[in-house]
Design goal:
The protein is an alpha+beta fold and 378 residues long. The chain has 11 helices and 7 strands.
C-alpha cells in the first residue's frame, strides 16, 4: 500500500476530530460533563498512530512491531485513564465513543473513494485493540477506586459502631432494668452485631472476588453452641421461627468466626427470601470426615441456571431481583469464600413446593493461620 492513504488520514484528521467530537457531545451523555475541553484527550495521538500503521501496511521488523503495539496499548490506556477520571462516565460510554470514531473514520476517508480490504482490516484491528486497552484500563481504575472506598468506609464505621455497642452493653448490665427495656437493648446489640458482620463481609467478599487470601483463625470450637447462639440472636428480631436439628456437641478445628458469619448470612437470607412466618430449619450432621450444615426455607424455587450466579460479588439471581428484596449481593460470596478456605463444598437444592436448602460440607482441618482462596469466576 502506498502512503497516499496515510496522507489522506493526516489531511482529514481535523475533520474526523470535529465530527467525532460533535457526535459524542450529542450521543454520549457524559461527553459534555468534563470541566475542561478535554474530550479529544488521546484521540489525536491515536489517529497519528493509525496513520503510521496505514503508511507502513504493518510491514515492519519484529522490534518495530513490538514498539508499535506497545505504543498502541499506551494510547488506549491514556483514553481509559482520562475517562475514568471523569466520574460520570460508564464503561459502555467509553466503548460507544470508539464505535462513533470507527463510523466517522470510514465516513470521512471514503468520501474520496472506497478503502480496500487490507486498509479496512488495519483500521478495524487498530480500533479493536484501542477499545480493549481503554476498557481494561477504565475498569481497573474504577475497581481500584471502589476498593479504596470500601476500605475507607469500613474503617470509618468501626469506631462509632464499637462505641454504640459498648454503650448498649453497659445499659444492659445496669440493675433494675425493666423487661421491655432489656428486650429493646438486646435488639440494639443484635443489630449492631449484624452491622459489624456486614462490614467484615464487605471486606472479605472483596478479597475473595480478587482471589486474595481470606484470613481465618482456626481454633477448636463447638459448632452446635455457635449455631444455637446465632439462632437465639435471630429469634430476638424475627421471633420463634427457627428449628435446629442437632443432637450433640459438634467439636472440631475450624475457622469459627468465619463459619459464624457464613451461617448468619445463610440464615438471614432464609428469613429475607423465604415465605413469611414459615419455619426455617437448620441442621448439623456429623460425618466421618467433618460436618454437614444445612439451612432450609420454604419459598419460591431458585432456577438451576441461576445457582452459579448466587456466589458472585454484587450479583444476584434474576428471581431475587424480580422479588425486589434489598441487598448488596455480597453475603453468598463471603459464604463461598469461607467454605473454600476450609477446603469444603457448597451445594444448593431447590424445588417447587419443597423450598430451598443450602448445604455446606466442612471437613475437619489441621490448625492453620490463613487459607488461600481461588478467584471466583466472572
Amino acid at each position: 500500500m502506498s502512503g497516499i492513504d496515510s496522507n489522506r488520514l493526516k489531511n482529514k484528521k481535523e475533520d474526523i476530530l470535529c465530527l467525532w467530537e460533535e457526535r459524542c457531545l450529542k450521543e454520549v451523555p457524559s461527553a459534555g460533563t468534563g470541566a475542561t475541553l478535554a474530550l479529544r484527550d488521546s484521540v489525536p495521538t491515536y489517529l497519528d498512530h493509525l496513520s503510521e500503521a496505514l503508511s507502513t501496511n504493518r510491514r515492519m521488523d519484529f522490534k518495530t512491531v513490538v514498539a508499535h503495539n506497545g505504543e498502541a496499548t499506551r494510547i488506549g490506556k491514556m483514553h481509559g485513564t482520562d475517562r475514568a477520571s471523569n466520574r460520570s462516565y460508564i464503561l459502555t460510554e467509553v466503548i460507544f465513543e470508539y464505535s462513533i470514531l470507527r463510523q466517522v473514520i470510514f465516513q470521512i476517508l471514503e468520501k474520496d473513494g472506497p478503502l480496500n480490504e487490507t486498509q479496512r482490516n488495519i483500521i478495524y484491528d487498530s480500533l479493536e485493540q484501542a477499545v480493549n486497552d481503554a476498557a481494561v484500563e477504565f475498569s481497573e481504575i474504577h475497581a481500584d477506586i471502589q476498593q479504596k472506598f470500601i476500605n475507607t468506609l469500613t474503617h470509618d464505621l468501626k469506631t462509632p459502631i464499637a462505641a454504640a455497642k459498648m454503650s448498649a452493653e453497659l445499659i444492659l448490665r445496669r440493675v433494675g432494668a425493666v423487661d421491655s427495656n432489656v428486650i429493646s437493648i438486646k435488639r440494639i446489640i443484635v443489630g449492631i452485631n449484624r452491622l459489624e458482620s456486614m462490614i467484615h463481609n464487605l471486606l472479605d467478599a472483596s478479597r475473595v472476588r480478587a482471589g486474595e487470601r481470606l484470613t481465618l483463625q482456626f481454633i477448636q470450637c463447638d459448632l452446635d453452641a455457635v449455631v444455637r447462639e446465632i439462632i437465639d440472636e435471630m429469634s430476638v428480631v424475627h421471633g420463634d421461627r427457627f428449628r435446629l436439628d442437632s443432637k450433640v456437641p459438634i467439636e472440631g478445628n475450624w475457622g469459627c468466626d468465619g463459619l459464624r458469619r457464613a451461617l448468619e448470612n445463610l440464615i438471614g437470607n432464609a428469613v429475607k427470601y423465604g415465605t413469611s412466618d414459615t419455619i426455617i430449619e437448620v441442621s448439623l450432621k456429623p460425618k466421618e470426615t467433618g460436618i454437614e450444615i444445612g439451612v432450609h426455607n420454604q419459598g419460591s424455587l431458585i432456577p438451576e441456571k441461576e445457582i452459579p450466579l448466587l456466589f458472585r460479588q454484587f450479583r444476584r439471581g434474576k428471581s431475587v431481583e424480580d422479588a425486589k428484596q434489598p441487598g448488596w449481593g455480597l453475603g453468598l460470596t463471603l459464604v463461598k469464600g469461607v467454605v473454600d478456605a476450609h477446603k469444603g463444598k457448597i451445594r444448593v437444592e431447590s424445588a417447587e413446593g419443597k423450598g430451598t436448602t443450602f448445604i455446606l460440607e466442612i471437613p475437619f482441618a489441621e490448625t492453620v493461620a490463613t487459607a488461600s482462596v481461588e478467584p471466583l469466576a466472572t
